[in-house]
Each structure stands twice: as C-alpha cells, then as structure tokens.
C-alpha cells in the first residue's frame, strides 16, 4: 500500500518564482553585497525582505533570520504596507517548514494590517493563503469557505491568473476530501489557463505543480496509467525550471505508485526514493526530511525486513510527535502495527493500532467533508443563478427600451413581464433555501446515525471483550482444576459468541440483542450472569420493573448498567458490585455501587468519563432524566440514575 501522507503542492499566491540554483545564488549575493553599502533605511528593509523571500527556496533558517530583521526594520520605519508583506512572506516560509501554527500567526498579522489599510485585494490573497494552512491542518470546512471567498473576489475583479490559482487550490482540497472527479475538473481548468500563457519560469513552475496534483487525483480514481503519465510530466517540467521540491515529490510519487501497483518495492522504486530524499535534503523542514524515511520503512516491509523497518520508524516517530505532524503520525502508527504483528509482538501491535484508530477518527470526519463539499455546491449553484439573473435582467432592459416606443399599452406589458420575472426569482431563491434545509437535515441524520452506531459498538462488544479478558486472566488459577478450567473456557466461548453476534447484527440493530429477546429485567439478569466471575461478584435487585416499558427507556437503562460494569472491570479493581433497579409510578431509579479503588472526580473527569459515560449522560438528558456520579479514592464509586415515565 502507498503511504497516506501528502503528495501535493498547495499554491500560495505569493509563491516564490523558482530560479535555477546559479541564478538564485547570484541574486542573493547581489542583495547581500548591496546591503552594507546603502544608507537608505527603507532600502535596507526591502533588501532584508527580499533576502528572506529568496532564501526560502534555499535555507529556511536563513529565510527566517532575514525575515526577523526585515520585520524589525519595517517596524522602526512605521511602514505598514511593507510590514504586512513581510508578515505574509514569513507566513509562507513557516508554511514551507510545515510549521502551520506560526504560518497562521503571521498571515493573521498581515491580515490585520491590510484590513486597517482597506487593502481588499491583499486580503483576498491572504484568504487563499490562510485557507492553505487550514487545509493542511484538516480544517476542511474553514478552508473551503476561504478559498471560495478568494475565488469570488478574483472573479469579480477579472483577475484571471489568481482565479486559476484559487481553482488549483480548490482542486487540491477536493483531493483531500477524496473527491477525485471534482479535483480533476478544477485542476484541468487551471492547467488549461497556464498552458495558454507564455512559457516563463513562473508559468512552467505552475504546470510542474499542477501535473503533480493531477496525477494524485487520478491515483485516487485508481487510474494508475494516467497518474504515472502526469507524474512523469511533472518531473520533466520541474527539472527544466530547477524546482527541486517538485522533482522530489514527483520521484517519490512515482516510487510509491510503483510499490502500490506491484505490491512490493523493486530496485527502481528504491532508487527513485533515494533521489527524492537527496533532492529534499536541501530544505530545512525536519518533518519533510523524516517523512521520506516512511517510504524507506515501507520498502523494508515489502521486502520482509521488519527489524530494519522498526528501527527507522521508532527513530522518526518522536519528530512527528514533537511537530504534531498528524498525517505522518497516522502513517507511522499503521506501519508499526504491521511490523509488530509480523514480529509477533502483539502488545505493541495492539497499542500502535489503537493509536492509529484514534488518529484516523480524529482526521477523518465525514460530516465535515460533506459540509465542505456542500459549500462548494452551494457556491456554484448561486453563481449559476446569478448568471441566469444577470442574463434575464439584460434581456429585460433591452425589451423595456424597445417596447417603451409602443406607448402605454407596451409599458403595461413590460411591467407585467417584469413582475413575472421577479416572482420566478423569488421562487428560485425559495427552492434553493429549501434544498439547503433538506441537505442539512440529511447530513444531521447521517451524523446522528453514525454516532448511534459508535455508541452501540463501544457499549456492547467492548463490555463483552472486557469480561472475556477478565475470565482469561483467571485461567491460570484453574491450572490443576480441569472442571473449573473447562467452566471458564466455556463461559469465555459463550461471551465471544455473543460478541460476534452483536457485531454481525449491528447494521440493523436499534437496541441490544438481549433486549430484542427478553424484557429489561431478563436482559439485566443475563448481563449479570455473563459478567460475574470468580474475581468479581455482582448482586442484582429488581423491584417492580414492568415488561412494557418504552424501548428508549429500556435501552438507556440497560446501557447505563452495562457501561458502569464495564468501567468497574476496566478501572476499579473491585471484588463486588451492588445494583438496584426500582420502578414506581413516577419513574425508574437505578443505583450502581462498587467497592473498587474509586477516583478523584474533579481531577479525573475529563480522562475517566470517556465516550461511555458521556453517551450515557446525553441519552439520559434526552429522556429528561438525571445522572449523578459519586466517587472517592479508596471508597468505591456510586452512580444514581432516574428517568421519569
């Protein structure tokens, strides 16, 4: 499999024009030679700013050092226009270093100055740059809003170049949103524009980036032949303009594509990876350098050299953790899971797999992806409606001009037609509004369904597996007792069978299996019977509980007790649990108490409650019930729940 870190360029509107290495060093040398000779403080500030900008293609450290000098000098001069440009340049430099926090910080500083100066064009460009930061930090909805805002401004002002840069960025965003068709549409538009321009270094550099990103979009569609073709085009054009970062990405993508297609790395792929690494070593981004090691580890895994892969992954993992490079972290966790599984070190494999799942859940938010896509659809719909409206208004004005010559009768007809058009426009707006409401309702329903499924999986299967683990822990105590050993094994098998049944029926499950087959009282008895073990005795007292309870109330009460037992087994080290469920005309009262180690609620609440208790609280609040948790170290835990009927 290919490694899921970023293959793409995000185009900044203030992007560096790529020179070949000799020309760039010559330009930097000329600026550094001029610096001590000039007595003009304004000129010094501009030179510092230019040096920061040009060094961003050569040395990030030098770029930041000159950027700080430029900031200091512009501040002393009080030149707000220059200072806003310097802040924007520093934002771009930090972006190249994958330091998105500082990148956002300096872009926002520039934004504040340009807003005070009412520099609308500059703000639009910064919107595009900030959107790139938000895209890189997985804030897709926010990125979509800002890209569309920038695109709208450039379209209004007829700035065709920046329109196509904004479209390129939208294409990249749709790559991240796993929508290759939309990505290809936007990127092809951008390519068409730059292919029509005179082939300057800047234009060729844009084509280098666009072909690379188009290749990624086709790779998402599993059209590997087209992907390879565009990666090679990108590599060729990047080579002609000396875009070493583009060359590195192209070689890396071609290598990963080869591994993906052949399911292993051959010598040609390894050569491309090494060439990519060499090209990228000229940049100072620690994350970018170390991410290259992920490819090496992937290659070792495909060659079944698991120990070598493990050494590489454990060496680079702290870098990604320190830099909070979340997508690279997710890749490293996934590869470490594979390595430890192959080395038969199950505890480490399970630990890294859990970290991978947690990171994946954090990054992959289907609701946000859908919302971002809907924003773009809404923008395009409104744009088309506006064009239709403008066309109709032009036609209307022409008709009014012509028909006004026919007198009062014609004026009456024109007025009537105008009224009809306004009614149509009003109707169109209402239809769009209703479509928007319907879309939001569908998205909310889907999100609620996903949450519900996650709750069932956690509360049902998780508790059964915890009980299984507890039973397995006592097996050794029955080593010399065949009957006891067989009893625990049978009980464990039964619990695992129920767990498999729970998973198999989860897709159409609206309540726990125990409740489908039994009443709440019988389901609780069955739960207690399965949860009891030699190390944990559970006492259940049911008083006046009716069989015809509302299904939602039964589910919530069952889940409350199930989650409390699960938490006790996992965390409390208790030997006994006391459960009382009582129904009267006012409602149902459930009391849960264990004799475990307890915990400090104030200091542990955010860590201890987790998904289980938070879901319980939200369910109880939905039913207008009350939830109370009491615990103290060494004195056990008590949970009291009351739901009105």
From TrEMBL:
Histidine kinase domain mapped to chain residues: 456-645
Family matches, as Pfam families: HATPase_c, HisKA_3, TPR_12, TPR_8
Database matches in SMART domains: HATPase_c, TPR
Gene3D superfamilies (UniProt xref): 1.20.5.1930, Histidine kinase-like ATPase, C-terminal domain (3.30.565.10), Tetratricopeptide repeat domain (1.25.40.10)
Annotated TM spans: 395-416
Coiled coil: 372-399
Catalytically driven reaction(s): ATP + protein L-histidine = ADP + protein N-phospho-L-histidine
Taxonomy, superkingdom: Bacteria
Gene Ontology molecular function: kinase activity
EC number(s) on file: 2.7.13.3
Keyword terms: ATP-binding, Coiled coil, Kinase, Membrane, Nucleotide-binding, Phosphoprotein, Transferase, Transmembrane, Transmembrane helix, Two-component regulatory system
PANTHER family in the record: NITRATE/NITRITE SENSOR PROTEIN NARX-RELATED, NITRATE_NITRITE SENSOR PROTEIN NARQ
Protein name: histidine kinase
């Amino acid at each position: 499999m290919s490694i899921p870190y970023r293959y793409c360029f995000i185009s900044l509107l203030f992007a560096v024009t790529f020179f070949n290495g000799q020309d760039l060093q010559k330009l930097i040398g000329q600026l550094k030679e001029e610096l001590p000779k000039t007595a003009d403080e304004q000129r010094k500030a501009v030179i510092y700013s230019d040096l920061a900008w040009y060094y961003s293609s050569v040395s990030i450290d030098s770029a930041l050092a000159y950027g700080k000098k430029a900031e200091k000098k512009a501040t002393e001069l009080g030149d707000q226009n220059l200072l806003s440009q310097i802040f924007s340049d520093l934002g771009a430099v930090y972006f190249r270093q994958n330091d998105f926090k500082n990148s956002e910080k300096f872009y926002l500083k520039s934004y504040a100055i340009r807003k005070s100066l009412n520099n609308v064009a500059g703000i639009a460009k910064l919107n595009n740059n900030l959107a790139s930061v938000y895209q890189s930090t997985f804030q897709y909805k926010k990125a979509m809003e800002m890209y569309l805002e920038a695109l709208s401004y450039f379209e209004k002002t007829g700035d065709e170049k920046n329109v196509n840069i904004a479209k390129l960025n939208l294409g990249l965003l749709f790559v991240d949103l796993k929508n290759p068709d939309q990505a290809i549409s936007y990127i092809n538009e951008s390519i068409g524009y730059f292919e029509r321009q005179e082939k300057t270094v800047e234009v060729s550099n844009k084509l280098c980036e666009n072909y690379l990103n188009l290749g990624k979009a086709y790779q998402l569609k599993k059209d590997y032949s087209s992907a390879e073709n565009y990666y090679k085009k990108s590599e060729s054009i990047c080579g002609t303009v000396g875009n070493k970062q583009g060359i590195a990405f192209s070689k890396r993508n071609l290598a990963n594509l080869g591994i993906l297609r052949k399911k292993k790395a051959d010598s040609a792929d390894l050569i491309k990876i090494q060439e990519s690494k060499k090209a990228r070593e000229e940049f100072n981004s620690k994350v970018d350098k170390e991410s290259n090691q992920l490819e090496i580890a992937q290659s070792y895994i495909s060659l079944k050299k698991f120990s070598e892969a493990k050494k590489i992954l454990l060496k680079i993992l702290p870098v990604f953790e320190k830099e909070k490079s979340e997508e690279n972290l997710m890749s490293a966790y996934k590869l470490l899971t594979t390595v430890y599984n192959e080395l038969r070190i199950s505890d480490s494999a399970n630990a890294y797999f859990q970290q991978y799942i947690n990171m994946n859940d954090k990054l992959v938010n289907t609701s946000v992806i859908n919302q971002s896509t809907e924003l773009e659809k809404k923008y395009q719909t409104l744009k088309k409606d506006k064009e239709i409206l403008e066309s109709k208004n032009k036609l209307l004005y022409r008709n009014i001009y012509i028909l006004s010559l026919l007198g009062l009768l014609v004026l009456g007809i024109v007025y009537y037609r105008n009224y009809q058009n306004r009614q149509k426009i009003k109707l169109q707006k209402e239809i769009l509004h209703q479509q928007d409401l319907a879309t939001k309702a569908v998205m909310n329903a889907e999100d609620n369904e996903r949450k519900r499924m996650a709750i069932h999986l956690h509360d049902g299967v998780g508790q059964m597996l915890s009980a299984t683990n507890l039973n397995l822990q006592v097996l050794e105590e029955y080593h010399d007792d065949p009957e006891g050993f067989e009893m625990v094994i049978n009980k464990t098998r039964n619990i695992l069978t129920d767990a498999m049944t729970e998973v198999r029926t989860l897709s159409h499950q609206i309540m726990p299996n125990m409740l489908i087959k039994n009443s709440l009282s019988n389901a609780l008895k069955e739960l207690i019977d399965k949860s009891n073990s030699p190390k944990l005795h559970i006492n259940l007292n049911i008083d006046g509980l009716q069989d015809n309870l509302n299904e939602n109330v039964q589910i919530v009460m069952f889940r409350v007790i199930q989650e409390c037992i699960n938490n006790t087994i996992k965390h409390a080290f208790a030997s006994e649990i006391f459960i009382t469920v009582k129904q009267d005309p006012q409602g149902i009262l459930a009391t849960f108490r264990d004799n475990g180690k307890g915990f400090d609620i104030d200091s542990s609440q955010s860590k201890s409650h987790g998904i289980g208790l938070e879901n319980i609280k939200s369910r109880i609040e939905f039913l207008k019930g009350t939830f109370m948790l009491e615990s103290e170290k060494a004195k056990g835990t008590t949970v009291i729940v009351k739901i009105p009927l």
